[in-house]
Amino acid sequence: MRHMGRQGMVASPHYLATAAGVNVLRRGGTAADAAIATNAVLATVTPHLCGMGGDLFALVYSAGDGTLTGLNGSGRAPAEATPERVCALAGGDSMPERGPLPITVPGGVEAWGVLHERFCRLPFTDLLADAIRYAEDGFPVSERFVASLRNFVPILHPETPALETFLPGGTALREGQILKQPRLARTLRAIAEDGTAVFYRGLIAHELVRSVRAVGGLLSSADLDEHRSEWVEPLSVQYRDVTVYELPPNSQGIVALLMLADLDHVPTDVLSSGGADYVHLLATAARLAYVDRDAHITDPMHMTMDPTELLARRSAQPQAGIEIDRTPETVVNGEPGDTVYLCTADGEGNLVSLIESNYMGIGSGIMAGETGVMLHNRGAWFSLEPGHANVIAPHKRTMHTLMPGMAFRGGRPWLVFGTMGGSAQPQIHVQLLTRLIDQGLPLDAAIDAPRFDAVLGADHEGRPIIALEDRFPRDMLSALSDKGDAVRELEGYSSRVGHAHAIQVLDDGVYVGAADPRADSLALGY
Known about the structure:
- It contains 18 helices and 19 strands.
- It has helices at about 15-25, 30-45, 85-90, 110-120, 125, 130-135, 145-150, 160-165, 180-195, 205-215, 220-225, 255-265, 270, 275-295, 305-315, 425-435, 445-450, 475-480; strands spanning about 1-5, 10, 55-60, 65-75, 140, 180, 230, 235-240, 240-245, 340-345, 350-360, 405-410, 410-420, 450-455, 465-470, 485-490, 500-505, 510-515, 520-525.
């Protein structure tokens, strides 16, 4: 369902968070104020997707001077995290996915601080008020929350307060049950009263470090104290008559741009049908672009190729593999991920596209002691293979799946968009954009449309796997199989293909917001 507004708009994967953002806008807050308030509530009511123990990326459009700015709020590996040390602690040569070793510095809270300093109007006491209330007094958990938590219970570390928090009294939560998080409420209140620095220095930081090192992690007080977010210049490509912006590495946003650079050479009428050829071409573009991602994308301080050079090369010479009847032989594996994406707009024309995550659902499974904060496992993306582009190193940022998007038409903002979905995010961005641009769908229909993930490795016969929601026509599955794909079906409205949200800016300044039915989402404007 689409919602319209002239004074403001918020779209997020939880209705309580969206309402908090709109409340801030009504009190005179900016789009950035609303984004922080929305994110803080999401960190409270969707701890299975995100939290203050994770990372954050954002794109911010300032209507006053017409500038678009990127914010990289991702944390770095601990200073002690050499490949040799991690291998020794892990007892093998594969990077652990859970537990203390994949915990990198959580950068999201510090990113709130720099976003607030530059673009906000209201104090943190106002912005975090709703989140504090939901943490302290509780909120009713949804069926989706309960189902996700059921899967994550085995991951929760028994030596931290996580089990006590999410299985109160030792019993599983039920839909509609009130979940209270008093530890988290105290941490939120400390940030509201004293600012985001308390998360990285002082008692909260001490508790973060103590809890991680108590279970064998490498995070130190110096790692937290030295962390800083970065303002970065977005990357862009022209697709049809639209300029699409994504964040530069270490974000994987460039993957969507590489796909679009290839697809821009495909006639619109080929993509407009939405049939098997459309799916196959997007799948092919994705598989080729992900090869570049895994070969090159990491912390930009460690990259050997300039990302702008990679984009320029692709735009000038699109991959020869983008053909209707050819499936590329090279495929790579994708990873699942759980995240929140939100977007906000205010009455002055300012826009924020923001994404934040614990990475794989509940993250590392470790709650940082009395802080009530679940710590992410973003370091799971690192490699321990010598010479790999993304091999772990002290103070290094890993290749990051998080990627907020924005698109301009005629030199003006046209679309604020993004999604959760881990490694699949670039594909979902491109599916959403092509549904809007090539197929001319309304915003809500483009978000509702069935999706697919084509970067899942290969089956036992070497055929690349593609997973599609079961809402695609049956004859399309046969056609894709004939083209060489190993077809797998997902249930309709599967979270495996993301929770996408977007705000469209019409020519007269009216906002159109749409939220994904795959989550407890709401887009609301006024």
